[in-house]
Inverse folding.
């Protein structure tokens, strides 16, 4: 990464400042708590899944701009999608952050989430970006808790 | 270098700035003189680990090339000389702490292992159901978790000596917390997060008046101030080599001889035995009783060389210089709008934790990293301190004798860039 501005783009900063879908769904059908013990990033995700569709989801918690913006953008992009598609996005997001999926050439469902591809050049921040996705995966799997450690 | 030539100190005093020739000192550190992300290295993370001078690296290299075999074994000249070098390092530590005897200096892997050793030997023998273990509110995890594990095992209770918003222990609460059930006090000498220098001598005297045993965690104090364990009257004192410009994997437990002698051994194995049979095994005396297996010989010799290096510069001159840096850095950082220093004790070592507006410390740390500035961002292995101060994490800049005012200026410029990016 030649400049931190490539990562800290306006969209990311804006979602950090005003996260979308912030809060907790009660009642919910799925939930999970995600913790990044290295950094102290701490988020909780609640979902309402009906007929295999993510009808609604919210997140709450605290953490760095990368984890907060990643959580916010994830909720925006996953809401209304089939669970199978959400699981595919979890996998593709992880692959992109590990540098194994190039959004420019490989097919993907990530849309705006490709903003986070710069994180692959910042190994110490990978866990921050991936935390909401790992937590979503745990919620959909019914694990209830996850850790990026 | 050949087998005959040992590395010797090369740096000369002169051109002193505030008592230290820092420009010359910096030349002793390969890492500090190598560009980082294409920029001059600004290393402000010595509280996480100190940088290692060339002479220490060379001393360990020399040992491994020309002097190495196992210690306390065999009759070969090589083994005897390796043992001599290893024991000379122990004597250097003894002198460094002003302990009464090398029998009181036990090698460990570091501060954490030293505390676990005390918890599992002295603690298991002396802590009983209903007893109280008192810890200060500014301990780091290494001086919390081993005692929680012991308390759970023994049915003992952990109590906490609180601190004020500046990060100073509330000594007026100490007497009430030293109850007839209190058996042990664990106390950090310098807070790794807040920089607070605790009045450990005064606290130890009060604890001893109630018959309470005291362990002082010196991990963050030994790099900043001269320690005299006899003057402090500490029962146990622990530190790590790598905070002291030495290598990782080596640390020290100092304990009063009378206490160590009564404690059971910890790990069993070679080196710590007098005689082994299927029927009965007997143990050797101090310090070997607590040093089962092959020790970290290279690292012990490296730590000895690091102590020589620091004493060559002078611990009191280091302390005085670092206080100047702390004063300057505190003044410069305080000018930044939205920056709040966490830890404003009257007596501080050169460690500054801060929060910046509502920007998370990891974002601050990442952007500073890009500017070639190494700081720590996070909970600093002291989550209860974060909870007490009401912040999830801080950014921490820690200054050592090889840092300069220019490093402080680079930090300030880096923080202003963070503010600019976050608008």
């Amino acid at each position: 990464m030649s400049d931190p501005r490539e990562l800290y783009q306006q969209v990311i900063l804006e979602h950090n400042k005003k996260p979308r879908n912030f809060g907790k769904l009660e009642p919910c059908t799925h939930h999970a708590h995600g913790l990044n013990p290295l950094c102290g990033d701490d988020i909780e995700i609640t979902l309402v899944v009906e007929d295999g569709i993510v009808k609604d989801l919210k997140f709450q918690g605290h953490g760095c701009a990368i984890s907060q913006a990643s959580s916010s953008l994830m909720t925006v992009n996953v809401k209304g999608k089939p669970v199978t598609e959400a699981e595919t996005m979890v996998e593709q997001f992880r692959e992109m952050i590990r540098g194994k999926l190039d959004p420019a050439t490989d097919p993907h469902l990530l849309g705006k989430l490709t903003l986070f591809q710069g994180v692959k050049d910042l190994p110490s921040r990978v866990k921050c970006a991936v935390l909401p996705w790992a937590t979503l995966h745990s919620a959909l799997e019914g694990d209830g808790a996850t850790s990026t450690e | 270098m050949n087998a005959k030539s040992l590395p010797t100190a090369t740096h000369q005093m002169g051109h002193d700035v505030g008592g230290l020739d820092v420009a010359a000192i910096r030349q002793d550190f390969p890492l500090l003189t190598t560009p980082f992300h294409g920029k001059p290295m600004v290393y402000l993370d010595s509280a996480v680990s100190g940088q290692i001078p060339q002479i220490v690296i060379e001393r360990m290299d020399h040992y491994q090339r020309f002097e190495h075999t196992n210690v306390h074994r065999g009759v070969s000249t090589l083994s005897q000389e390796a043992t001599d070098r290893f024991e000379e390092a122990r004597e250097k530590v003894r002198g460094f702490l002003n302990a009464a005897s090398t029998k009181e200096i036990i090698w460990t892997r570091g501060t954490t292992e030293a505390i676990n050793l005390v918890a599992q030997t002295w603690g298991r023998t002396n802590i009983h159901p209903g007893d109280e273990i008192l810890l200060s509110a500014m301990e780091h995890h290494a001086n919390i978790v081993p005692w929680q594990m012991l308390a759970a095992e023994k049915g003992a209770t952990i109590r906490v000596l609180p601190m004020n918003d500046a990060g100073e222990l509330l000594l007026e609460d100490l007497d009430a917390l030293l109850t007839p059930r209190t058996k042990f006090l664990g106390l950090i000498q310098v807070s790794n997060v807040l920089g607070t220098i605790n009045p450990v001598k005064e606290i130890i005297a009060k604890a001893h008046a109630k018959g309470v045993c005291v362990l002082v965690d010196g991990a963050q104090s030994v790099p900043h101030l001269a320690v005299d364990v006899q003057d402090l009257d500490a029962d146990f004192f622990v530190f790590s080599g790598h905070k002291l410009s030495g290598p990782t994997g080596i640390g020290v437990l100092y304990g009063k001889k009378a206490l160590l002698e009564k404690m059971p051994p910890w790990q069993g194995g070679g080196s710590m035995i007098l005689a082994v049979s299927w029927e009965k095994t007997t143990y050797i005396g101090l310090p070997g009783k607590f040093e089962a297996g092959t020790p970290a010989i290279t690292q012990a010799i490296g730590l000895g060389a690091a102590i020589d290096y620091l004493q060559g510069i002078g611990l009191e001159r280091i302390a005085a210089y670092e206080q100047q840096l702390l004063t300057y850095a505190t003044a410069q950082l305080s000018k930044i709008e939205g920056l709040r220093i966490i830890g404003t004790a009257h007596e501080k070592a050169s460690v500054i934790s801060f929060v910046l507006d509502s920007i998370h410390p990891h974002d601050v740390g990442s952007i500073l990293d890009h500017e070639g500035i190494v700081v720590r961002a996070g909970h600093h292995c002291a989550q209860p301190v974060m909870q007490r101060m009401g912040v999830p994490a801080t950014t921490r800049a820690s200054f050592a004798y090889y840092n300069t005012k220019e490093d402080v200026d680079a930090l300030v410029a880096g923080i202003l860039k963070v503010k600019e990016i976050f608008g």
About this structure: Chain B has two domains: 22-52+314-418, 60-311. Chain B has 14 helices and 15 strands. Chain B touches chain A through 19 residues (CB under 8 Å). The longest helix of chain B spans residues 77-97.
